[in-house]
Design a protein that fits this description.
Elements lengths: L1 H12 L5 H26 L9 H4 L5 H24 L1 H25 L2 H5 L1 H11 L1 H25 L4 H29 L1 H4 L3 H8 L3 H18 L3 H14 L4 H12 L4 H18 L2 H14 L8 H13 L3 H8 L2 H4 L6 H14 L4 H14 L6 H17 L7
Helix pairs in contact: 1-9, 2-4, 2-5, 2-9, 4-5, 5-7, 8-9, 12-13, 13-14, 14-15, 15-16, 15-17, 16-17, 17-18, 17-20, 18-20, 20-21, 20-22, 21-22
Length: about 400
């Protein structure tokens, strides 16, 4: 997103009609070309984070812009020669082949950095036939994305001014190009073996044990499926990964986010409790508060069955000064989980929330007295000290009754 915004702003800045603007626009186009090829390279190696913005403007790879220009020139020359030498009989099949082979040419150039291979008909035909029918699907997806950008601008062109339409067209064009390149990179990754790009990947894969391999695959597949809107496939990919790493925080986070937008409330709450427990182990209180808030959008005043999930969510909420939610979350915890060892700490938090948020010192004092009376055996010395200190403060601030 940062790359798209930067290139759009630079494009608007360089939209003048002088020679300098033209040269700088050419440089910007080279940077965009370099970045999009980097997307293909990164995705084809199984890495799902986009390249940094800096990679568009620094380092090697600017020669790809000139190689891409050369490819267009060669393909144009081939089409012209076919029409000149053979007329319509040769021109039509040549145009069809060149257009159909263009994504394959881009993928070959991104992976092999060879201009000769990127325009060699035999090489391109081999790539297309090796991938098979999915290549046609990729081709039509690219056509849809290309047409989608034009259709969007055509619709908006009659509704907004040219000053707004120009930067929007830059942003839209760059966005759809990045998506197309991501699809091509993923296609290379999926069919790396049949395309003969397995040497480096096989070496890396041999260093992964079975658990790590399934973990990496779950991360990769879930990212792609989520971007494509295939939520069922995304959920299945995460489920497979969690069979091998049951308590992995990242996989569980993704599973929770998928279930939070799904229709199955029971599945969402079950995942949320496990996710909150993992966040407790990692001490990620802010994420715990966010997760609890997401569930409460569907189930107001939700109380997890797992006491540890309640505890960590309450800690996160207290750190954000969401006092009422802390009280709702911890209320009656001793009835739901009488053997929970952190009851004293939980009710100390509850008393702090009642005191600081609700300004009910008398109620906070009652909670602390109840805690001392019923849970003294499970109270640690440090927690007991904190309870006594807070009780002393509350007793001083409580209104005193004057005898008649």
């Amino acid at each position: 997103m940062a790359f798209l915004l930067i290139t759009s702003l630079l494009g608007v800045t360089l939209s003048g009609g002088n020679i300098f603007s033209g040269l700088m626009s050419l440089v910007l186009t080279a940077c965009i070309t370099k970045y999009t090829y980097k997307i293909i390279e990164v995705m084809s190696n199984g890495h799902w984070e986009p390249p940094s913005v800096a990679e568009a403007f620094t380092g090697d790879g600017f020669h790809l812009f000139f190689k891409q220009l050369a490819i267009f020139i060669v393909m144009g020359a081939v089409i012209g020669a076919a029409g000149f030498l053979g007329g319509w009989v040769f021109l039509i099949p040549t145009v069809l082949f060149v257009v159909l082979a263009l994504p394959a040419s881009v993928m070959v150039l991104a992976r092999e950095d060879s201009l000769v291979d990127a325009v060699h008909p035999g090489k391109l035909f081999g790539v297309m036939t090796a991938i098979g029918w999915p290549y046609l699907l990729l081709f039509f997806f690219i056509l849809l994305l290309y047409g989608g950008s034009g259709a969007l601008l055509a619709i908006l062109g009659t509704k907004i001014s040219d000053s707004v339409l120009f930067p929007l067209s830059l942003f839209s064009g760059s966005y759809f190009t990045c998506v197309m390149c991501a699809l091509m990179g993923y296609c290379l990754y999926q069919y790396q073996e049949v395309l003969g790009y397995t040497t480096e990947e096989a070496i890396e894969e041999n260093h992964l044990d079975e658990t790590s391999w399934y973990y990496q695959k779950a991360l990769a597949d879930s990212s792609i499926f989520f971007q494509e809107g295939r939520m069922i496939d995304c959920r299945d990919a995460l489920k497979t990964g969690l069979k091998h790493r049951k308590n992995d925080l990242e996989l569980t986070r993704r599973q929770f986010e998928i279930n939070a937008i799904g229709a199955d409330v029971e599945r969402m709450t079950k995942t949320a409790e496990h996710y909150l427990q993992l966040l407790s182990e990692k001490g990620q209180l802010s994420a715990a508060a966010n997760a609890y808030g997401s569930v409460c959008l569907r189930i107001p005043n939700w109380q997890p069955e797992n006491p540890e999930a309640c505890y960590v969510a309450a800690r996160g909420l207290l750190s954000r000064r969401r006092f009422k939610e802390v009280v709702v979350l911890l209320k009656g915890l001793h009835n739901r989980s009488p053997e929970y060892r952190k009851l004293p700490e939980a009710y100390l938090m509850m008393a702090q929330a009642i005191c600081d948020g609700l300004r009910r010192e008398d109620q906070a004092l009652k909670v602390l007295e109840f805690t001392k009376k019923h849970f003294a055996e499970m109270t640690s010395p440090q927690t007991a000290k904190e309870i006594d200190e807070l009780m002393a403060i509350l007793e001083k601030s409580a209104p005193k009754t004057v005898p008649a």
